[in-house]
Amino acid sequence: MKFGQNTPHSLYVPSVRTMPKRLKHYDYPYHFEVRRASRNSGIRWKARWLQASVTLAEEYIDFEEVEDGMHDVYFRDLFVGRFVERTMKIEDVIRRVPIRQTIVECGNPKTRRKVSPVCLE
Q1: Contact (CB, 8 A) for 61 and 53
Q2: Distance (Å, rounded) from C-alpha 73 to C-alpha 89?
Q3: pLDDT at 52
Q4: pLDDT value, residue 21
Q5: How far apart are CA 48 and CA 43, in angstroms?
């Protein structure tokens, strides 16, 4: 298929699939603490304010206590992160790669340079 100089608008075709207005009810396991995020994506936790993701606004989120003061956070069956009561934050689930400055050798010592950041895998 050749696109040539066509604009995206001239090639656009609406999807035939429809999206539901609301997701169907989801039953969380009985031992989870279920909270509903407010319109501005906040959750009350022991009279304190916990900010969740704006994508979870007005959705039910569940908290599974894994140890004292730490909870795994789920939206339906999707693991969102870990909530730490001490900091009142939901920590990222992505394991970040350590970053450090690295000296790169370039044959000639005069052209040696620092490269930052370099991801170590």
Answers
A1: no
A2: 11
A3: 87
A4: 83
A5: 8
pLDDT at 108: 58
Tokens of 10: 């001239």
DSSP structure string for the chain = ---TT--HHHH----S----SSPPP-PPPTTSEEEE--TTSEEEETTEEEE--GGGTTSEEEEEEEETTEEEEEETTEEEEEEETTTTEEEESS-PPPEEEEEE--SSGGG-EEEEEEE--
Q: 78-84 and 70-75 as β-strands: parallel, antiparallel, unpaired?
A: antiparallel
Strand partners for 36: 60
For residue 16, give Cα distances in angstroms to 1, 8, 9, 12, 13: 21, 18, 17, 12, 9
Chunked into runs of 10 residues, the chain (121 residues) has average pLDDT values of 76 88 82 92 91 89 92 89 91 62 56 49 40
For the chain, the maximum distance between any two Cα atoms, rounded to a whole number of angstroms, is 65
